[in-house]
Amino acid sequence: MQHLHPIKRPRGRPPKKTDGQLDTKDQLIRQGTTILTEKGFSSTGIVEILREINIPKGSFYHYFASKDEFGLAVVENFGTYFARKLDKWLLNTDRAPLDRMVDFIEDAKDGMRRYDFRRGCLIGNLGQELGSLNEDFRDPLETIFLDWQARVARCLDDAKASGHIPTALNTDEMAAFFWIGWEGAILRSKLVKSTDPLDLFASVFFSSLSHKPPVIERNK
């Protein structure tokens, strides 16, 4: 994935950081993540992001040459953050491999409810909005999906090694299927403001692994 670095320019306010506070670039990326997840890339203006965190436009251009470069930095940051979240659940060896996936799903459902189904997945949202329209975003978004897919595949490999799923199962294909279906379920959940689509997808996914599926709690 392309790694973005602060642009060295004489204009704009220099980086600043005080104890217990995010520096300016981190504030921009965090606020951008929130607004882009809820409203999308095209509908979000830079001024709107700056107004919410009271940062002048000059500070924005100290770090980012354009809105696209800013969007790519938000994408990269979110991809890293979410990979850590996946690892928290999928690498938890205190839980059986498929139960780790259930834990991730339950956490995602809690997050959807917490934000009243407004946010969903930033990468999925931008993939739908920009994937076929902006070539600069296509590869970074797909790279993140492939990274997440590999993490699920490793968890499924653990399930195979422990005898919870058939040894003949193609875990790479099943991991790809998981993210294709999961992102669609996230979009449907936002539409209907319910976790029912996530529950339905999870039940079908685990059933497709050919062993008794873990219990997915519904509408708790």
What multimeric state do the chains show?
single chain
The SSE order reads HHHHHHHHH
Architecture (CATH level 2) name of the domain at 75-207: Orthogonal Bundle
Return the structural class.
Answer: mainly alpha
Strand content: under 5%
- Here the CATH topology of the domain at 75-207 equals Tetracycline Repressor, domain 2
Radius of gyration (CA) equals: 19 Å
Distance, first to last CA: 38 Å
Shape, per Cα inertia axes = elongated
Low-confidence stretches: 1-21
CATH superfamily label of the domain at 75-207 = Tetracycline Repressor, domain 2
User: Helix share of residues?
Assistant: 55-70%
Tally of DSSP helical segments: 9
- For the record, what CATH class of the domain at 75-207 applies? Mainly Alpha
The number of distinct β-strands equals 0
Mean pLDDT over the residues? 87
Biggest sheet statistics: none
SSE topology sketch:
Layout: H1 24-39, H2 46-53, H3 57-63, H4 67-90, H5 97-114, H6 122-130, H7 135-161, H8 171-192, H9 196-207
Helix pairs in contact: 1-2, 1-4, 1-6, 4-5, 4-7, 5-7, 6-7, 7-8, 8-9
